[in-house]
Amino acid sequence: MVKAPLNRLRLRRLGVDTQKEYVAYLRVDSHIAMSEGFEALTRIRVHSGNTSIVASLYIVHSNMLKKGELGLSEMAFNALSAKEGGYVTIAHLEPINSLSYVRSKIYGNRVTGKEMKEIITDIVAGNYSNVHMASFITAFGGENMNLDEIISLTRAMIESGSQMKWGKSVVVDKHCIGGLPGNRTTPIIVSIVSSLGLIMPKTSSRAITSPAGTADTMEVMAPVNLSLKKIKAVVDKEGGCVAWGSNARLSPADDILIRIERALDLDSEGQMIASVLSKKKAVGSTHVVIDIPVGDTVKIRSIEAANHLKVLMEKTGNAIGLKIKVVVTDGSQPVGKGIGPSLEAMDILAVLRNEKEAPSDLRSRSLLLAGELLELVGLAESGKGNEMAAKALSSGKAYQKFMAICKMQGGFTEPGFAKYMHDVKADKEGTICAIDNRKLSRVAKLAGAPDHARAGLLFLSPIGRKVNVDDILYTIFTETEGELEYVLEYQKTEKDIITIQ
Amino acid sequence: MVKAPLNRLRLRRLGVDTQKEYVAYLRVDSHIAMSEGFEALTRIRVHSGNTSIVASLYIVHSNMLKKGELGLSEMAFNALSAKEGGYVTIAHLEPINSLSYVRSKIYGNRVTGKEMKEIITDIVAGNYSNVHMASFITAFGGENMNLDEIISLTRAMIESGSQMKWGKSVVVDKHCIGGLPGNRTTPIIVSIVSSLGLIMPKTSSRAITSPAGTADTMEVMAPVNLSLKKIKAVVDKEGGCVAWGSNARLSPADDILIRIERALDLDSEGQMIASVLSKKKAVGSTHVVIDIPVGDTVKIRSIEAANHLKVLMEKTGNAIGLKIKVVVTDGSQPVGKGIGPSLEAMDILAVLRNEKEAPSDLRSRSLLLAGELLELVGLAESGKGNEMAAKALSSGKAYQKFMAICKMQGGFTEPGFAKYMHDVKADKEGTICAIDNRKLSRVAKLAGAPDHARAGLLFLSPIGRKVNVDDILYTIFTETEGELEYVLEYQKTEKDIITIQ
């Protein structure tokens, strides 16, 4: 008779979202918890057949689990791809060799490209806990990486996932260094440059802390959850796409690390460069325009900081074979009127359709960046890119291209408004002199964006506008009364969202 | 009618041990999860009446929780001291100011004493998540702290908890920089020096990664879970005690940070110094002997490293008003025969009772360190401490004192052996030439130590011993057959626990 292994447990799906960190739950009175000295926070390996995952262990003292069960958090359960109720075994985790490079870095040593690669491979394999990743991000944070290390990290992140090939010498892309509400130029730029024959396989992110990511906004108008194969098909046909990036496993290390960077509120230059450029390279780009908005309430707050970042980005881009053009823009106030997926989509369509009331700032920013791209690849002469882009837009070619892309992605839908609305009005006469972008974003989020795509706000009070008492500053849209109450309560406590003088 | 706040939830105790990090569980379809944009890993504040705690949030997609419930991990539930089923409210966490000092440190700046104090205060208040603590430990890890910062950290840790006062100009203590199995000199030293009239209020730790901590070993013979008041009473009467430290809230920051340091396997000098010396100062010590065993498989691996540590410890001790004497000792093999709480307790008693077969290495190490303490405080002339200690031991005075201390702590119990035993024998003839202390510790842990106090092993093969085939190298003791099987399986895969040549 073959004895069952002592460490065999029955799998239980707990339905707990613990983000990217896999968590396993084990009862304190399990034989294995006692005999193996497993205690809370121990790192374990969970085996099911030929697959295994690494998880952090929590110890359960209640009947949440039955004896002999191993509970798994949602992503851990999915990663193991085993059946609930099936048998799994667990074991102590073998030592993770690459953690010694992180320790070495803490002691002030440089890491080699090979070592960086090993670290990133372990992170993508799920071998680092959140605590290990926080240590990695800190050790390589601030200004602790030199250019070589930034390049190593960028390369390692590229190699950590899929890489797309287009068989073309010119593939373009753009990126905005975050933080400006409504700055949704991407679908317009993609439409302009692909209508002029360029290849632009654009992958975008969903909102992390903002009321809308480009992927959320695009999704209002067309499906964005495309496989790599589907992206390929759309771009082969239309030259461009606007897809959600995460599904494509392009630079997956970035998706993992960004959560912890956010928890630490630590946004180090070197890591940001690696994050942005690895995604661009992985998608197969050759020429990239980077938009850096500068302002008091966005990520980059001074021209000096923007210029420092520009130089590092250009050098790193050069090392990995990307031609980079950095454009520094105004980041003092929101772009366009809409904040929230559907409301931003309306702005985009207004620009593409050349409507009279289309937001002129969104239009001119899109033309600026599209023009820079056209010049960077040599399609337009220096100084003529903006004009070429404007022509593609005014002629309706860009709009036709956009509709064709939407069709290829799965079909176009016209954006709409949420059910409830409320006008926020000026309480005095004067001139709008400052906007707190962070707080305005928070209003849109409390209103329900991005989960409720039609929620958010329409912003009607740009800096310099003269207002009278009771003029509308912005209009809030929500899908439920509860959310509207919530927003109004928040507004009561925050007086400096929009400053009138 | 007063409306219930939207963020009101019913409290549910989940019985999950997540260590010192408080974790809260909320259903994805709760109104507040949606409207407030709470997502997994968000940090929230949980209010119950006038108390509140900070917790990391996990989002639940299953019926583990009912709608409108907030689940709490075990320590979070205890910290909030609210009733299960009662109402709590939750809110986004206000920004933690001291995290900006950690970020500043990542950028290479020094922190002031005041800033360090604020960081440690937040950590003790539970305001840092594990991820934040990992970042703190990394930023201040390696050699990143200068002497001023080490002193600041030590002071902040002392002030983070209770501090004992004895009204005496001389209060002694000792500490061993970890890692040597069986090195259980503490109860012997306490007995010797307090029998000679010194005050030694010793607080010790339980095992973290080892098969036994001093508190675990002492607990076999007498209760160690003493309140501050009880410690005071024991020491006032007998001059010495051996108590478990954690109950006394002496330097509680250390108890919190040590878990994360262990998870990171990062043992930075500066943090270790602050950890050790803050505990000593908090307990009211004035004179401290530090034992640093040096060996290939213990924490400190070279004389140079030991000396570097010695200098920093002496300078830091000086700054906080502690007289420090560092003694570097041999760390090449276990001390005594027993490994595991009860088996180590037998060694201690054999030495105190002057039994013929008492382990001479444990005896001589205890006398060395006790002698150094006697000289450090000026009770013995230089070079005469060892002799004075030996006299107190041989005369039986130390044993009497030990029994008196046990009585005051709650009563003495004679240690015993676990139920199952198994001899591990030499498979060849030769001389013992090396011991892997880490693997030997692992054998004792797999045997059940320290949770099963009588489990562990008796080590009978010190370096230099000549053995024949089938001579006993060590004897394993376990309380269950399952554990014995477990250990034997481990032994099969590990051939170099004891090397015979």
Structure description:
The structure is a homodimer of 501-residue chains. Chain A is of the alpha/beta class. The first copy, chain A, has 4 domains: 8-92, Barwin-like endoglucanases (Beta Barrel), CATH 2.40.40.20; 99-159, Up-down Bundle (Transferase, Pyrimidine Nucleoside Phosphorylase, Chain A, domain 3); 172-251 and 260-409, Nucleoside phosphorylase/phosphoribosyltransferase catalytic domain (Pyrimidine Nucleoside Phosphorylase, Chain A, domain 2, 3-Layer(aba) Sandwich), CATH 3.40.1030.10; 420-500, Pyrimidine nucleoside phosphorylase-like, C-terminal domain (Aldehyde Oxidoreductase, domain 3, Alpha-Beta Complex), CATH 3.90.1170. Helices cover 41% and strands 20% of the residues of chain A. In chain A, the strands form 5 sheets. A 6-stranded mixed beta barrel of chain A has the order 1-6-3-5-4-7. In chain A, helix 12 links the parallel strand 11 and strand 12 (323-330). Chain A is globular, with a radius of gyration of 25 Å. The relative contact order of chain A is 0.10. The interface between A and B is large, with 61 and 63 residues. Strand 2 (16-17) of chain A pairs antiparallel with strand 5 of chain B, so a sheet runs across the interface.
Structural class of chain A: alpha/beta
Domain count of chain A: the total is: 4
Largest interface: A-B, 61 and 63 residues
Tell me the number of helical segments of chain A per DSSP (H or I, 4 or more residues long). 18
Main sheet strand line-up of chain A: 1-6-3-5-4-7
The CATH class label of the largest domain in chain A is: Alpha Beta
Q: Beta-strand level of the residues of chain A, as a percent range?
A: 15-25%
Tell me the span between the first and last alpha carbons of chain A: 86 Å
| Total E-strand runs of chain A | 19
